[in-house]
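pipeline stage [seq->struct] | target=N-acetyltransferase domain-containing protein | organism=Dysgonomonas macrotermitis | residues=98
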Amino acid sequence: MENYELINNTDEKQYEFHVGKYLAKIEYIKTDTGEIYLTHTEVPTALEGQGIGSQLVEKVLTDIENNQLRLIPLCPFVAGYIKKHPDWRRIVIRAVNL
């Protein structure tokens, strides 16, 4: 699988992968107090089953950690990824139950 470049599109409030003519994205809400809510993940149907969504989540979580933000994963896809990779719970706000 290709290694895609993560783009943080702050104007649209979403992380993005540009894959050919397609756009895979995770939408977010960021607070002034250091929390980030991941609200929606979208991978075009033509790209499904290729691991692009998982790679996107992994890179987004790495970016969140590198920026020392606290995560609230509202998106079921992101929450499911964290359940499968529990080491990422380290950046989830403690009060959040996955």
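stage status: PASS
auto-comment: The longest helix spans residues 52-66. The chain has two helices and five strands.
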